[in-house]
Structure formats: C-alpha cells, structure tokens
Amino acid sequence: MTEIPLNIQLSALPTGPGVYQFYDSNDSILYVGKAKNLKKRVSSYFNKNHEYGKTRVLVKKIRAIKHIVVPTESDALLLENNLIKELRPRYNVLLKDDKSYPWLCLKNERFPRLFPTRRVIKDGSEYFGPYTSMKTVRVLLDLIKSVYPLRTCNYDLSAEKINAGKYKVCLEYHLGNCKGPCEGYQSITEYERQIDDIRQIVKGNFKSSITYFKSQMKALAAEMKYEEAQEIKDKIDVLENYQVKSTIVNPKISNVDVFSIISDNSFAYVNFLQLAHGSIIRSHTMEIKKKLEEQDEDLLELAVVEIRERFNSDSKELYVPFEIAVSPGLKVTVPKLGDKKRILDLSERNAKFFRQERFNQIKIIDPDRHTNRIMAQMKKDLRLSAEPRHIECFDNSNIQGSNPVAACVVFKDGKPSKKEYRHYNIKTVTGPDDFASMEEVVYRRYKRLQEEMQPLPQLIVIDGGKGQLSSALKSLDLLGLRGKIAIVGIAKRLEEIYFPEDPIPLYLDKKSESLKIIQTARNEAHRFGITLHRNKRSKGAINSELESIDGVGEKTAQQLLKKFKSVKRIKEASVESLSQEVGVSKAKKIYESFHK
User: Fold this and answer.
1) Does domain 374-535 have CATH number 3.40.190.10?
2) What is the mean pLDDT of each run of 10 residues along the chain (596 residues)?
3) Alpha helix (H) residue ranges in 223-320
4) Helices (H), 244-322
5) Phi and psi dihedrals of 151, rounded to 5?
6) Of 4, 72, 65, which Cα lies nearest the Cα of 39?
7) From 3.40.1440.10, 3.40.50.300, 3.40.190.10, 3.30.70.240, which CATH number describes the 6-95 domain?
8) Locate the UvrC family homology region profile domain: which residues (predicted)?
C-alpha cells in the first residue's frame, strides 16, 4: 500500500455516510467502523485525547485508511456488520459474534404471510432487508398491517380445504385485521394485489399503493360514502408520512462480483464489490495508469482478471457496466434497472469518490501533477492544439448604454492571476452595443500586448454566444492573430461552448473540470467588470446631484468631493467652510440649495 501521510488521507475523505477501515504498517486490518460523516468521524480519532488505552494504542498503529461510500447511515451499519464478520479485525469486539440482523419474510405459500425472522431459509420465500434493528421491522409491519389486512394463521389455505369448509374465521377477522380468506371471504386475486403493493412498500416505493387508494377514495366520495372514504384517506396519510430509511438489496443476489470503471486522460479507477446474500463482503478500488489511449473495455477486462486473482474470488457471475470478454464459465450481466442496477451504481459511486480522493491528495502532495492533468483534460475537451496554460476572459457591463465598461481577467494554470486583471472604459461605442464594445476591447488588449512584446494567451474566452464571438474574431483578424490564439464563447443559458465558424455548440458535462474553469473565469470577469461599472454609476450620480446646483460645474463638484469626501458632509458644512474652497458666492448657493 502506498505510504501517504495520514493528514493527507484525512483531508481527502468524503463527508457522506460509509464504512472506514484502519490498516497498520503490515497492511493488516485493525478496525472497521461506520460513520454518518466519514471525514468528521475518522478525523475525530486523531484530534482528541482518548479515555481508553485500547483506543490510544489503535490510533498509534494506524498507517492507512480505506473507506466504502454507501447511500444511507443504515446501509453503513449493515455493511459494517458484514465486514467485521468477514475480516474479523483485531480491535472490533461487539459484532464478531454470529448474530444476524432481522429480515422481513414473505412466505412462499397460498395467501402469503408477512413476518419478521433472523434466519434466511432457501424455500422459495421472499426476504427483504436486512434491517438495522427489530424495532425498524416492527414499525414497518405495523404500517403495512394498518393499511393491508393480512392473515396471521399458519393454515394450509389450499383451494380444496377452503371449499370443503375446513376452517372458520378467527378473532382477527372480527377485529377487522383479516378479511377471512380461510372461509373464502377474500379472493386470491385481491390478496395477491395487496402482496404486490407490499413488495413495493418494503422497497420504499409507495406510488402504486397511493395511486390505488386515491382512486378508491374518489369513487367512495362520489357515492357519498364519506366515512369509508375518510378511512382510505387515513391510509394514504400513513403511507405518505412514512419513509423507508434503508436501501434494500435482494438477498437472492449471492456469490456475485460487481465491477465499475471511471477514467480520464491519464488514469482509470476500477471498483470491485463482492456480494453474498445481498450483502457487500468486500470492496476494493484499483488505480490504473494509462500508457496509451486504452479503451475502458480493455482496462476493465485486465482489472477483472487481476482483482479476482488477488482476492481468490470464485464467483460465477459478474455485474459490469458494459459487455466484456471473460473466461469461459463466467456469466456477465449488464444491469439496466432494479436491485442489480442499484448495486452497480453504488460501485460506480465508490470509484468516483476514490478518484476524487486521489485528486485531493495529489493537490497537496504534487500540485504540478494536478495542474498538468487538468490542462491536458482541457486541451482534449476543447479540441485545442496546446494546453491552455494562459487563459483570458472578457465581459461587458452596461445598463441601457450608461457607463459602458469591460473587464479582462487572466488565469494561469487554471488559477486567477489577479495582478494581471484589466478594466476598460468603452471609448468608441455610443449606446448599448455589446458586439461593438467586445470588438473594441479585444482589439485594444492584444494590440497593446503585441506592441509591448508580451506573451499571448493560448485561449480566449468570450462571455456570450455567437454574436460576441464573431465581434472578437474581427479584432483578431485585424491584428493578424486569427488561428494563432484559440477562442471560444460561453453562453449563459445552457453553458454552451461556441467555436469559430461552427454553428453547433459543445456541451461539456456539468461536473467537468474544464467547464468549471471556464465558468469560474466567466464569473470572475463579470464580477470584476460590474465592480467598475457600479463605481462609475455611483460617482456619476453624486456629480449629477452637485452639478444640478446653479453655478456648480464638474470641476467645482470634484473640488468639493476631494475636500469633504461625500455629499453628506457637503450638505452638513457651514457657509464659512464651503467658502474657503469655492468662494462666498458659490458657497451661499450650495448652502441654500441643501437647506431650503
């Protein structure tokens, strides 16, 4: 295992729920724990004094931290239980026994019963869970029974025995908790419809049940059976107010290996989850350095062989995001929906978190590598001939043509270089003409850089669509820079990237780092430009207020502001103090204007 300082490993941890694993210098497992917030929980081991000596010894031995990200805190608790039983870490005591979490069993029989159990028996019955506590199971059972009356007896309700009148309804029927299928008072079709709804409820899907009850409620209300309609409404309220907190995995998914892959220009990240009876018993993520332009399919095929050999996996089925070639005897499944797809999504999520964790570590350990990776990615994403180490972004600011200004911001290696930011007052354009303003500013910027023999950027970003981009191109043509500097426009509405002479825009992934840098530059140019624009507007408003006084012109207004700093102080000044600056005659006019 690569020796990375613990403080860097901690800084790169995600903040969501999951399970963490501590390893010593020999790569031996020390401890497995769960957390609602991985970063906060794991960091707490290293930034406080521990009361128990066992914990202090554990912390001293930690050399590496691994983690598995899961959707909810309940999932973290279940996964922790599975990993402790599988890995048997030295410092875990409580969960090493053979106790199992409870499940909900839908019995494989005619008119199925629903009941809690801690034993999963392969008799064709359906099992839902596992749940974090029996209390959770009881709450869910109470919810279901309050909405759907189910039988609780263990009679063999075959059609022959019911037709023969072998059974009589019990107290549960008279209490309204059962509809009496034992005497044929409830049909198998109606009962099975209830069971179908219950299957969805325990998986967290209440849509079909609520839809059915709403239609029933409306029908009863139309018949003016308001009391019965209210009973149905109460059931709808119960369903809408309840939320299942745990992600349910089908226990029939057993002896399966799950693989997913995330890649960029330089590296690929392959996550491996091993499942048994619907539970994750192992997780591992591999980082692969690309040598050439390898495809994800080729890399995943190699990773599957290596990881299965490393962990001695004998699983006969693989879940993967796309078809791959594997050895004979292995079944390959590409899930599209349901429990299988949920597991594959969880694997992909862990691969993404691992990739982000590595990026965060690299930012601290090797910032140059991080920058090189982003620049290489931008070159690929934007189809550039060179890495955009020097980026300049332009934005115009005006309100109905007043005080038009523009801003140019500079980014070096993906980071703002604020000392090189420039403001521009628009000189040759009258009225609110953004296109002409952009043309003027781009021309002035690069004419000066050429005259001063300053380095030109590799990429120019224009805030706007095809119109602004065309205007900027005119200036580059006049300066003979067309084709020497890459230039793109970014439109705000859908964040489209426009290229010269290409009517079809490029849409980058919303999470793309290339798009984030372009957006940051655009937002920074807007912020920088609007600051100057607001200052000009406020100064203009102040001067207008003073210049509206008879006998006060622009020079007098500036002279007064230089002395008194604000219009408020000018209003409060006496005739004597004003006359010292502008003479007695003007001082009286100014004083009288503000003290009518």
Assistant:
1) no
2) 71 83 87 86 81 77 84 71 74 54 83 86 77 69 80 88 87 86 88 84 68 84 86 76 48 80 83 75 79 78 84 84 84 84 86 80 70 86 88 77 76 89 80 80 90 90 86 89 88 84 83 86 85 57 58 72 74 78 77 72
3) 226-241, 296-310
4) 296-310
5) -75, 150
6) 65
7) 3.40.1440.10
8) 262-476
